[in-house]
Design a protein that fits this description.
Layout (H helix, E strand, L loop, with lengths): L2 H28 L3 H25 L8 H19 L1 H6 L5 H12 L15 H16 L1 H8 L8 H7 L12 H24 L5 H12 L16 H14 L3 H9 L3 H4 L1 H20 L5 H16 L14 H10 L15 H19 L8 E2 L2 E2 L2 H32 L5 H12 L20 H15 L3 H4 L4 H4 L2
Antiparallel strand pairs: 1-2
Helix pairs in contact: 1-2, 1-3, 1-6, 3-5, 3-8, 5-6, 5-20, 6-10, 7-9, 9-10, 9-11, 9-12, 10-11, 11-15, 14-15, 17-18, 18-19, 18-20, 19-20
Length: 483
Amino acid sequence: MSIRRLLYVIGAVVAGVGVAMLSAAVVALLYQEWDDAWQIAAAAAVTIAVGLFAWRSFGQRTKELSPREGFAAVGLSWFAIIAVGTLPYIFSGSITDVTDAFFETSAGFTTTGSSILTDPGALSHGILFWRALTQWMGGMGIIVLSVAILPLLGVGGVQLAKAESPGPTPDRLTPRFRETAKRLWFVYLGITAAEVLALLLGDMTLFESVAHSFTTMSTGGFGTDAASIGGFSAYTQWVVVVFMLLAGVSFALHFKALRHPRAYLRSAELRIYLWVLVAAAVVMIIGTRGGAVSDTIREGVFTAVSLVTTTGFATADFGQWAAALQVLVVGLMFIGGMAGSTAGSVKIPRHGVLVSASRNDLRRLIHPRGVFVARLGKDAVSEEIVQSVQAFFLMYMFIFMTGTFLFSIIDSSTGAGLDLVTSASATASAIGNIGPGLSEVGPGANYAGVPMLGKWLLGFLMVVGRLEIFPVVLLFTRELWRK
Protein backbone atom coordinates (compact mmCIF):
# COMPACT_ATOMS: atom_id res chain seq x y z
CA MET A 1 0.00 0.00 0.00
CA SER A 2 1.50 3.30 -1.14
CA ILE A 3 -0.08 6.45 0.31
CA ARG A 4 1.69 8.49 -2.36
CA ARG A 5 0.02 6.53 -5.16
CA LEU A 6 -3.37 6.92 -3.44
CA LEU A 7 -2.94 10.69 -3.22
CA TYR A 8 -1.91 10.78 -6.87
CA VAL A 9 -5.17 9.12 -7.94
CA ILE A 10 -7.39 10.98 -5.48
CA GLY A 11 -5.85 14.31 -6.49
CA ALA A 12 -6.54 13.63 -10.17
CA VAL A 13 -10.16 12.69 -9.48
CA VAL A 14 -10.75 15.74 -7.27
CA ALA A 15 -9.22 18.06 -9.86
CA GLY A 16 -11.54 16.54 -12.48
CA VAL A 17 -14.56 17.28 -10.28
CA GLY A 18 -13.34 20.87 -9.95
CA VAL A 19 -13.21 21.25 -13.73
CA ALA A 20 -16.77 19.88 -13.98
CA MET A 21 -17.81 22.41 -11.32
CA LEU A 22 -16.89 25.23 -13.69
CA SER A 23 -19.79 24.24 -15.96
CA ALA A 24 -22.21 25.18 -13.16
CA ALA A 25 -20.54 28.59 -12.95
CA VAL A 26 -21.06 29.01 -16.71
CA VAL A 27 -24.76 28.17 -16.33
CA ALA A 28 -25.05 30.77 -13.57
CA LEU A 29 -23.45 33.35 -15.88
CA LEU A 30 -25.89 32.50 -18.68
CA TYR A 31 -28.77 33.23 -16.32
CA GLN A 32 -27.03 36.40 -15.09
CA GLU A 33 -26.71 35.07 -11.56
CA TRP A 34 -23.49 36.99 -11.04
CA ASP A 35 -22.91 36.38 -7.34
CA ASP A 36 -23.51 32.63 -7.54
CA ALA A 37 -21.41 32.39 -10.69
CA TRP A 38 -18.37 33.86 -8.95
CA GLN A 39 -18.92 31.83 -5.80
CA ILE A 40 -19.21 28.58 -7.75
CA ALA A 41 -16.11 29.55 -9.75
CA ALA A 42 -14.28 30.18 -6.46
CA ALA A 43 -15.36 26.75 -5.21
CA ALA A 44 -14.12 25.22 -8.45
CA ALA A 45 -10.79 27.01 -8.12
CA VAL A 46 -10.30 25.72 -4.58
CA THR A 47 -11.24 22.18 -5.66
CA ILE A 48 -8.87 22.21 -8.64
CA ALA A 49 -6.07 23.66 -6.50
CA VAL A 50 -6.50 20.98 -3.82
CA GLY A 51 -6.61 18.22 -6.42
CA LEU A 52 -3.54 19.47 -8.30
CA PHE A 53 -1.65 19.93 -5.04
CA ALA A 54 -2.27 16.32 -4.02
CA TRP A 55 -1.51 15.09 -7.52
CA ARG A 56 1.69 17.05 -8.08
CA SER A 57 3.12 17.18 -4.54
CA PHE A 58 2.39 13.78 -3.09
CA GLY A 59 1.57 11.62 -6.06
CA GLN A 60 3.59 8.89 -7.64
CA ARG A 61 3.18 7.37 -11.07
CA THR A 62 2.61 3.66 -11.43
CA LYS A 63 1.63 1.46 -14.30
CA GLU A 64 -1.03 -0.30 -12.29
CA LEU A 65 -2.45 -0.13 -8.81
CA SER A 66 -2.57 -3.23 -6.66
CA PRO A 67 -6.01 -4.62 -5.71
CA ARG A 68 -5.69 -3.18 -2.20
CA GLU A 69 -4.72 0.23 -3.57
CA GLY A 70 -7.65 0.10 -6.00
CA PHE A 71 -10.18 -0.47 -3.23
CA ALA A 72 -8.60 2.19 -1.01
CA ALA A 73 -8.44 4.74 -3.84
CA VAL A 74 -12.10 4.21 -4.76
CA GLY A 75 -13.38 4.48 -1.19
CA LEU A 76 -11.29 7.52 -0.30
CA SER A 77 -11.98 9.25 -3.62
CA TRP A 78 -15.72 9.19 -3.03
CA PHE A 79 -15.38 10.77 0.38
CA ALA A 80 -12.97 13.33 -1.07
CA ILE A 81 -15.30 14.39 -3.90
CA ILE A 82 -18.23 14.66 -1.49
CA ALA A 83 -16.12 16.95 0.72
CA VAL A 84 -15.25 19.31 -2.14
CA GLY A 85 -18.72 18.94 -3.65
CA THR A 86 -20.17 20.80 -0.68
CA LEU A 87 -18.23 23.96 -1.55
CA PRO A 88 -20.65 25.43 -4.17
CA TYR A 89 -23.51 25.17 -1.67
CA ILE A 90 -21.51 26.72 1.16
CA PHE A 91 -19.74 29.41 -0.86
CA SER A 92 -22.99 30.58 -2.49
CA GLY A 93 -24.93 30.48 0.78
CA SER A 94 -27.52 28.13 -0.75
CA ILE A 95 -26.92 25.69 2.12
CA THR A 96 -25.03 27.26 4.99
CA ASP A 97 -24.98 24.33 7.41
CA VAL A 98 -22.04 21.96 6.83
CA THR A 99 -24.06 18.90 7.83
CA ASP A 100 -26.87 19.76 5.42
CA ALA A 101 -24.37 20.48 2.64
CA PHE A 102 -22.68 17.13 3.28
CA PHE A 103 -26.05 15.34 3.18
CA GLU A 104 -27.16 17.03 -0.04
CA THR A 105 -23.82 16.38 -1.74
CA SER A 106 -23.75 12.76 -0.58
CA ALA A 107 -27.25 12.28 -1.98
CA GLY A 108 -26.05 13.87 -5.21
CA PHE A 109 -22.91 11.89 -5.98
CA THR A 110 -24.41 8.61 -4.73
CA THR A 111 -27.55 9.21 -6.84
CA THR A 112 -29.84 9.10 -3.81
CA GLY A 113 -32.91 11.30 -4.16
CA SER A 114 -32.89 12.34 -0.48
CA SER A 115 -32.84 16.07 0.18
CA ILE A 116 -32.99 18.55 3.04
CA LEU A 117 -34.47 21.22 0.74
CA THR A 118 -38.12 22.14 1.11
CA ASP A 119 -38.27 23.85 -2.27
CA PRO A 120 -35.39 23.23 -4.71
CA GLY A 121 -36.96 25.79 -7.02
CA ALA A 122 -35.75 28.54 -4.68
CA LEU A 123 -32.14 27.80 -5.66
CA SER A 124 -30.36 29.56 -8.50
CA HIS A 125 -29.96 27.88 -11.87
CA GLY A 126 -26.24 27.48 -11.30
CA ILE A 127 -26.69 25.61 -8.01
CA LEU A 128 -29.55 23.51 -9.42
CA PHE A 129 -27.33 22.56 -12.34
CA TRP A 130 -24.49 21.56 -9.98
CA ARG A 131 -26.98 19.56 -7.91
CA ALA A 132 -28.15 17.65 -10.99
CA LEU A 133 -24.61 17.30 -12.37
CA THR A 134 -23.39 15.59 -9.19
CA GLN A 135 -25.97 12.87 -9.77
CA TRP A 136 -25.18 12.51 -13.46
CA MET A 137 -21.45 12.16 -12.75
CA GLY A 138 -22.08 9.76 -9.89
CA GLY A 139 -24.50 7.67 -11.93
CA MET A 140 -22.14 5.89 -14.26
CA GLY A 141 -19.35 6.35 -11.75
CA ILE A 142 -16.73 9.03 -11.49
CA ILE A 143 -14.10 6.36 -11.07
CA VAL A 144 -15.28 4.51 -14.18
CA LEU A 145 -14.82 7.77 -16.06
CA SER A 146 -11.41 8.08 -14.49
CA VAL A 147 -10.48 4.67 -15.91
CA ALA A 148 -10.48 6.33 -19.31
CA ILE A 149 -8.46 9.33 -18.09
CA LEU A 150 -5.93 8.02 -15.58
CA PRO A 151 -3.86 6.03 -18.12
CA LEU A 152 -3.05 9.40 -19.70
CA LEU A 153 -1.51 10.35 -16.35
CA GLY A 154 0.52 7.16 -16.11
CA VAL A 155 -1.86 5.26 -13.82
CA GLY A 156 -3.60 2.04 -14.81
CA GLY A 157 -7.30 1.83 -14.03
CA VAL A 158 -8.14 -1.88 -13.97
CA GLN A 159 -8.25 -2.19 -10.19
CA LEU A 160 -10.30 0.99 -9.93
CA ALA A 161 -12.89 -0.42 -12.35
CA LYS A 162 -13.08 -3.69 -10.46
CA ALA A 163 -13.58 -1.91 -7.16
CA GLU A 164 -16.10 0.70 -8.35
CA SER A 165 -18.11 -0.83 -11.20
CA PRO A 166 -21.80 -1.16 -10.29
CA GLY A 167 -23.10 -4.70 -10.14
CA PRO A 168 -21.74 -8.09 -9.08
CA THR A 169 -18.97 -8.03 -11.70
CA PRO A 170 -17.74 -5.37 -14.14
CA ASP A 171 -18.92 -6.30 -17.65
CA ARG A 172 -16.14 -5.86 -20.20
CA LEU A 173 -17.13 -4.95 -23.75
CA THR A 174 -13.48 -4.99 -24.85
CA PRO A 175 -10.31 -6.55 -23.43
CA ARG A 176 -9.26 -3.09 -22.22
CA PHE A 177 -11.16 -1.50 -19.33
CA ARG A 178 -10.31 1.94 -20.68
CA GLU A 179 -12.14 1.24 -23.95
CA THR A 180 -15.04 -0.34 -22.07
CA ALA A 181 -15.38 2.78 -19.91
CA LYS A 182 -15.43 5.01 -22.98
CA ARG A 183 -18.14 2.95 -24.66
CA LEU A 184 -20.33 2.88 -21.56
CA TRP A 185 -20.07 6.64 -21.21
CA PHE A 186 -20.88 7.04 -24.90
CA VAL A 187 -24.13 5.13 -24.41
CA TYR A 188 -24.84 7.01 -21.18
CA LEU A 189 -24.39 10.38 -22.88
CA GLY A 190 -26.41 9.33 -25.93
CA ILE A 191 -29.46 8.18 -23.96
CA THR A 192 -29.27 11.31 -21.78
CA ALA A 193 -29.35 13.49 -24.92
CA ALA A 194 -32.33 11.50 -26.24
CA GLU A 195 -34.25 12.16 -23.04
CA VAL A 196 -33.48 15.88 -23.21
CA LEU A 197 -35.05 16.01 -26.68
CA ALA A 198 -38.08 13.95 -25.59
CA LEU A 199 -38.73 16.16 -22.56
CA LEU A 200 -38.46 19.31 -24.65
CA LEU A 201 -41.52 18.13 -26.57
CA GLY A 202 -43.51 18.35 -23.35
CA ASP A 203 -43.93 21.15 -20.83
CA MET A 204 -40.33 21.42 -19.61
CA THR A 205 -37.93 24.22 -20.44
CA LEU A 206 -34.47 23.44 -21.81
CA PHE A 207 -32.94 23.84 -18.35
CA GLU A 208 -35.54 21.58 -16.73
CA SER A 209 -35.10 19.00 -19.49
CA VAL A 210 -31.35 18.85 -19.01
CA ALA A 211 -31.54 18.76 -15.21
CA HIS A 212 -34.17 16.02 -15.13
CA SER A 213 -32.40 14.00 -17.80
CA PHE A 214 -29.24 14.10 -15.68
CA THR A 215 -31.11 12.87 -12.63
CA THR A 216 -33.22 10.31 -14.50
CA MET A 217 -30.40 8.54 -16.32
CA SER A 218 -28.35 8.44 -13.12
CA THR A 219 -31.43 7.09 -11.26
CA GLY A 220 -30.83 9.97 -8.86
CA GLY A 221 -34.21 11.62 -8.43
CA PHE A 222 -33.27 15.24 -7.77
CA GLY A 223 -35.85 17.61 -9.24
CA THR A 224 -36.11 21.35 -9.81
CA ASP A 225 -39.46 21.75 -8.09
CA ALA A 226 -40.92 20.88 -4.69
CA ALA A 227 -43.51 18.61 -6.35
CA SER A 228 -40.81 16.45 -8.00
CA ILE A 229 -42.20 15.15 -11.31
CA GLY A 230 -45.77 15.45 -10.06
CA GLY A 231 -45.95 19.07 -11.18
CA PHE A 232 -45.45 18.22 -14.86
CA SER A 233 -47.80 16.82 -17.50
CA ALA A 234 -48.79 13.18 -18.01
CA TYR A 235 -46.67 13.10 -21.20
CA THR A 236 -43.58 14.22 -19.28
CA GLN A 237 -44.19 11.63 -16.58
CA TRP A 238 -44.45 8.81 -19.13
CA VAL A 239 -41.23 9.97 -20.81
CA VAL A 240 -39.50 9.85 -17.43
CA VAL A 241 -40.91 6.33 -16.86
CA VAL A 242 -39.41 5.11 -20.14
CA PHE A 243 -35.98 6.54 -19.41
CA MET A 244 -35.98 5.36 -15.77
CA LEU A 245 -36.65 1.88 -17.15
CA LEU A 246 -33.74 2.26 -19.61
CA ALA A 247 -31.45 3.52 -16.83
CA GLY A 248 -32.18 0.36 -14.85
CA VAL A 249 -30.90 -1.81 -17.72
CA SER A 250 -27.23 -2.70 -18.08
CA PHE A 251 -25.48 -0.10 -20.22
CA ALA A 252 -23.26 -2.85 -21.57
CA LEU A 253 -26.44 -4.55 -22.82
CA HIS A 254 -27.56 -1.28 -24.40
CA PHE A 255 -24.24 -1.05 -26.24
CA LYS A 256 -24.47 -4.64 -27.48
CA ALA A 257 -28.04 -4.02 -28.64
CA LEU A 258 -26.89 -1.10 -30.81
CA ARG A 259 -25.34 -3.68 -33.12
CA HIS A 260 -27.52 -6.68 -32.33
CA PRO A 261 -31.00 -5.68 -31.08
CA ARG A 262 -31.78 -9.31 -30.30
CA ALA A 263 -29.33 -9.03 -27.39
CA TYR A 264 -32.26 -7.71 -25.36
CA LEU A 265 -34.27 -10.85 -26.10
CA ARG A 266 -31.42 -13.15 -25.07
CA SER A 267 -30.91 -11.53 -21.68
CA ALA A 268 -32.43 -13.61 -18.85
CA GLU A 269 -31.59 -10.82 -16.41
CA LEU A 270 -33.62 -8.33 -18.47
CA ARG A 271 -36.62 -10.67 -18.48
CA ILE A 272 -36.51 -10.99 -14.68
CA TYR A 273 -36.18 -7.20 -14.37
CA LEU A 274 -39.23 -6.58 -16.58
CA TRP A 275 -41.33 -9.20 -14.79
CA VAL A 276 -40.55 -7.60 -11.43
CA LEU A 277 -41.57 -4.19 -12.78
CA VAL A 278 -44.82 -5.52 -14.26
CA ALA A 279 -45.76 -7.42 -11.10
CA ALA A 280 -45.05 -4.43 -8.85
CA ALA A 281 -46.97 -2.05 -11.12
CA VAL A 282 -50.02 -4.33 -11.30
CA VAL A 283 -50.20 -4.68 -7.52
CA MET A 284 -49.92 -0.91 -7.06
CA ILE A 285 -52.55 -0.17 -9.69
CA ILE A 286 -54.99 -2.61 -8.10
CA GLY A 287 -54.19 -1.39 -4.60
CA THR A 288 -54.73 2.30 -5.41
CA ARG A 289 -57.74 2.01 -7.74
CA GLY A 290 -60.60 4.39 -7.12
CA GLY A 291 -59.72 7.54 -9.05
CA ALA A 292 -59.44 8.13 -12.79
CA VAL A 293 -58.19 4.97 -14.49
CA SER A 294 -55.50 6.76 -16.50
CA ASP A 295 -54.15 8.53 -13.41
CA THR A 296 -54.17 5.32 -11.36
CA ILE A 297 -52.27 3.41 -14.04
CA ARG A 298 -49.74 6.19 -14.53
CA GLU A 299 -49.07 6.63 -10.81
CA GLY A 300 -48.81 2.87 -10.22
CA VAL A 301 -46.40 2.32 -13.10
CA PHE A 302 -44.37 5.43 -12.26
CA THR A 303 -43.99 4.50 -8.59
CA ALA A 304 -43.06 0.88 -9.36
CA VAL A 305 -40.41 1.85 -11.91
CA SER A 306 -39.04 4.63 -9.70
CA LEU A 307 -38.64 2.30 -6.71
CA VAL A 308 -37.20 -0.72 -8.55
CA THR A 309 -34.71 1.43 -10.45
CA THR A 310 -33.97 3.35 -7.20
CA THR A 311 -34.58 6.68 -8.95
CA GLY A 312 -36.64 8.26 -6.20
CA PHE A 313 -38.91 10.48 -8.31
CA ALA A 314 -42.48 10.62 -7.04
CA THR A 315 -45.86 11.51 -8.50
CA ALA A 316 -47.85 10.11 -5.56
CA ASP A 317 -47.34 10.17 -1.80
CA PHE A 318 -47.10 6.43 -1.17
CA GLY A 319 -46.67 7.22 2.50
CA GLN A 320 -50.46 7.69 2.52
CA TRP A 321 -51.21 4.34 0.88
CA ALA A 322 -52.60 1.28 2.65
CA ALA A 323 -50.22 -0.53 5.02
CA ALA A 324 -49.89 -3.54 2.69
CA LEU A 325 -48.75 -1.32 -0.17
CA GLN A 326 -46.27 0.45 2.09
CA VAL A 327 -44.76 -2.95 2.92
CA LEU A 328 -44.43 -3.53 -0.83
CA VAL A 329 -42.77 -0.13 -1.19
CA VAL A 330 -40.13 -1.04 1.40
CA GLY A 331 -39.66 -4.47 -0.21
CA LEU A 332 -38.99 -2.89 -3.61
CA MET A 333 -36.24 -0.80 -2.01
CA PHE A 334 -34.23 -4.03 -1.74
CA ILE A 335 -34.60 -5.05 -5.41
CA GLY A 336 -32.67 -2.71 -7.70
CA GLY A 337 -32.07 -2.82 -11.43
CA MET A 338 -29.69 -4.86 -13.56
CA ALA A 339 -25.97 -5.18 -12.96
CA GLY A 340 -24.09 -2.54 -14.93
CA SER A 341 -26.97 -0.07 -14.70
CA THR A 342 -27.02 3.12 -12.68
CA ALA A 343 -29.55 1.65 -10.25
CA GLY A 344 -28.62 0.96 -6.64
CA SER A 345 -29.75 -1.60 -4.03
CA VAL A 346 -29.06 -5.36 -4.22
CA LYS A 347 -29.74 -5.70 -7.99
CA ILE A 348 -31.57 -8.31 -10.04
CA PRO A 349 -28.75 -10.83 -10.76
CA ARG A 350 -27.97 -11.24 -7.08
CA HIS A 351 -31.60 -11.99 -6.32
CA GLY A 352 -31.67 -14.46 -9.20
CA VAL A 353 -28.59 -16.26 -7.87
CA LEU A 354 -29.97 -16.28 -4.31
CA VAL A 355 -33.29 -17.79 -5.44
CA SER A 356 -31.56 -20.44 -7.56
CA ALA A 357 -29.13 -21.36 -4.77
CA SER A 358 -31.96 -21.57 -2.22
CA ARG A 359 -33.96 -23.82 -4.53
CA ASN A 360 -30.94 -26.10 -4.88
CA ASP A 361 -30.61 -26.30 -1.10
CA LEU A 362 -34.21 -27.49 -0.86
CA ARG A 363 -33.65 -30.05 -3.60
CA ARG A 364 -30.61 -31.42 -1.76
CA LEU A 365 -32.85 -32.24 1.21
CA ILE A 366 -34.79 -34.59 -1.05
CA HIS A 367 -31.82 -35.81 -3.12
CA PRO A 368 -28.78 -35.74 -0.77
CA ARG A 369 -26.47 -37.19 -3.44
CA GLY A 370 -27.67 -34.96 -6.23
CA VAL A 371 -25.45 -32.40 -7.91
CA PHE A 372 -27.18 -29.09 -8.49
CA VAL A 373 -25.81 -25.96 -10.13
CA ALA A 374 -27.15 -22.47 -9.50
CA ARG A 375 -28.24 -20.73 -12.67
CA LEU A 376 -29.25 -17.28 -13.83
CA GLY A 377 -31.49 -18.05 -16.77
CA LYS A 378 -29.68 -20.78 -18.68
CA ASP A 379 -26.22 -19.69 -17.56
CA ALA A 380 -24.53 -21.71 -14.84
CA VAL A 381 -23.18 -19.76 -11.87
CA SER A 382 -20.00 -20.92 -10.16
CA GLU A 383 -20.01 -21.80 -6.47
CA GLU A 384 -17.53 -18.97 -5.88
CA ILE A 385 -19.99 -16.41 -7.24
CA VAL A 386 -22.83 -17.94 -5.21
CA GLN A 387 -20.80 -17.58 -2.03
CA SER A 388 -19.87 -14.00 -2.96
CA VAL A 389 -23.52 -13.08 -3.55
CA GLN A 390 -24.60 -14.69 -0.30
CA ALA A 391 -21.88 -12.83 1.60
CA PHE A 392 -22.91 -9.54 -0.03
CA PHE A 393 -26.58 -10.03 0.83
CA LEU A 394 -25.77 -11.01 4.41
CA MET A 395 -23.56 -7.92 4.78
CA TYR A 396 -26.23 -5.74 3.15
CA MET A 397 -28.93 -6.89 5.59
CA PHE A 398 -26.56 -6.60 8.55
CA ILE A 399 -25.74 -2.99 7.64
CA PHE A 400 -29.45 -2.25 7.16
CA MET A 401 -30.33 -3.60 10.60
CA THR A 402 -27.35 -1.92 12.26
CA GLY A 403 -28.13 1.37 10.52
CA THR A 404 -31.76 1.22 11.64
CA PHE A 405 -30.63 0.49 15.21
CA LEU A 406 -28.15 3.39 15.25
CA PHE A 407 -30.65 5.76 13.64
CA SER A 408 -33.22 4.86 16.30
CA ILE A 409 -30.67 5.49 19.07
CA ILE A 410 -29.79 8.89 17.57
CA ASP A 411 -33.47 9.72 17.34
CA SER A 412 -34.22 8.75 20.94
CA SER A 413 -31.17 10.59 22.30
CA THR A 414 -32.02 13.82 20.48
CA GLY A 415 -35.78 13.70 21.01
CA ALA A 416 -36.50 14.22 17.32
CA GLY A 417 -39.67 12.12 17.60
CA LEU A 418 -39.12 9.98 14.49
CA ASP A 419 -40.85 6.60 14.59
CA LEU A 420 -39.49 3.15 13.70
CA VAL A 421 -41.05 3.27 10.23
CA THR A 422 -39.11 6.45 9.54
CA SER A 423 -35.86 4.97 10.87
CA ALA A 424 -36.14 1.71 8.92
CA SER A 425 -37.31 3.24 5.64
CA ALA A 426 -34.73 6.04 5.78
CA THR A 427 -31.96 3.49 6.32
CA ALA A 428 -33.23 1.22 3.53
CA SER A 429 -33.55 4.22 1.24
CA ALA A 430 -30.03 5.43 2.03
CA ILE A 431 -28.21 2.15 1.52
CA GLY A 432 -30.33 1.43 -1.56
CA ASN A 433 -29.65 4.92 -2.98
CA ILE A 434 -33.36 5.56 -3.45
CA GLY A 435 -34.40 8.83 -1.77
CA PRO A 436 -37.83 9.11 -0.19
CA GLY A 437 -38.84 6.73 2.56
CA LEU A 438 -42.02 6.50 4.58
CA SER A 439 -43.64 8.48 7.39
CA GLU A 440 -41.56 11.58 8.27
CA VAL A 441 -39.24 11.15 5.24
CA GLY A 442 -41.87 10.21 2.67
CA PRO A 443 -42.41 11.80 -0.76
CA GLY A 444 -44.47 14.55 0.80
CA ALA A 445 -41.69 15.51 3.22
CA ASN A 446 -37.88 15.75 3.27
CA TYR A 447 -34.90 15.00 5.49
CA ALA A 448 -34.56 18.46 7.05
CA GLY A 449 -36.01 17.22 10.35
CA VAL A 450 -33.51 14.39 10.74
CA PRO A 451 -31.05 14.99 13.62
CA MET A 452 -27.51 16.09 12.71
CA LEU A 453 -25.92 12.73 13.60
CA GLY A 454 -28.69 10.99 11.68
CA LYS A 455 -27.79 12.95 8.53
CA TRP A 456 -24.13 12.00 8.86
CA LEU A 457 -25.11 8.36 9.34
CA LEU A 458 -27.42 8.35 6.33
CA GLY A 459 -24.82 10.14 4.19
CA PHE A 460 -22.27 7.49 5.11
CA LEU A 461 -24.75 4.71 4.29
CA MET A 462 -25.40 6.31 0.89
CA VAL A 463 -21.70 5.92 0.03
CA VAL A 464 -21.67 2.36 1.39
CA GLY A 465 -24.61 1.47 -0.83
CA ARG A 466 -23.27 3.25 -3.92
CA LEU A 467 -19.93 1.45 -3.70
CA GLU A 468 -21.66 -1.85 -2.98
CA ILE A 469 -20.39 -2.14 0.58
CA PHE A 470 -16.99 -3.79 0.30
CA PRO A 471 -14.77 -0.87 -0.86
CA VAL A 472 -15.97 1.17 2.14
CA VAL A 473 -15.90 -1.67 4.67
CA LEU A 474 -12.35 -2.54 3.62
CA LEU A 475 -11.21 0.95 4.58
CA PHE A 476 -11.80 -0.01 8.19
CA THR A 477 -9.88 -3.30 8.09
CA ARG A 478 -6.29 -3.65 9.28
CA GLU A 479 -5.42 -5.99 6.40
CA LEU A 480 -5.99 -3.30 3.78
CA TRP A 481 -3.39 -0.95 5.27
CA ARG A 482 -0.88 -3.54 6.43
CA LYS A 483 2.37 -3.49 4.47
